[in-house]
Amino acid sequence: MEDKKHWTKKELVAYILLYAAQSDFVESNKEKNVIISKVDMKTFQRIHDEFDKDNDYQSIQKIIAGLEEHQYSKMDIDLLFADIKGLFFADGNYDTTEQSMYMFLKRILN
Q1: Where in the sequence is the domain holding 84, given as residue range(s)?
Q2: Residue 5: helix, strand or coil by DSSP?
Q3: Residue 2 domain-assigned (yes or no)
Q4: Residue 3 in domain
Q5: Which residue of 45, 56, 76, 102 has the fewest CB atoms within a 10 Å radius of its CB?
């Protein structure tokens, strides 16, 4: 595994939202727009390129490490989950795959 990344908080949020958006293996334009609203296009593309190289296990490890590094509080995590829910509703379809991903993230990130 490559060296530990030191992301900014915005980069971490973008990575987490990208991970969530991929839960149904479809990253809609509306979902991309939600993520891009959190970071600039260049950062989004860089985070996306990194995400594409990672497997599921690596993604989860990076997310957990990032939350620890930025010392996310309960309130920070609540805001993050509000962003994730907003992402899932962006395309007007909160399907069972996305609901399952939401519950999975709740378990590992709380």
Answers
A1: 9-109
A2: coil
A3: no
A4: no
A5: 56
Residue 3 pLDDT > 60: no
19 in a structural domain: yes
Indicate the pTM of the whole model: 0.90
Cβ neighbours of residue 9 under 8 Å, at least 6 residues apart?
70
Helix or strand or coil: residue 97? helix
For the chain, how many structural domains are there in total?
A: 1
Two structure tokens written together for 23? 């839960």
Q: Give CA–CA dist 1/11, Å, rounded.
A: 19
What are the CA-CA distances from residue 99 to residues 4, 23, 44, 46, 93 (Å)?
30, 9, 24, 27, 10
Cα–Cα dist 50/39, whole Å: 15
Which residues, including other chains, have CB under 8 Å from residue 101's CB and lie 6 or more apart? Answer: 20, 23, 24
pLDDT of residue 18: 95
18 domain residue, yes or no: yes
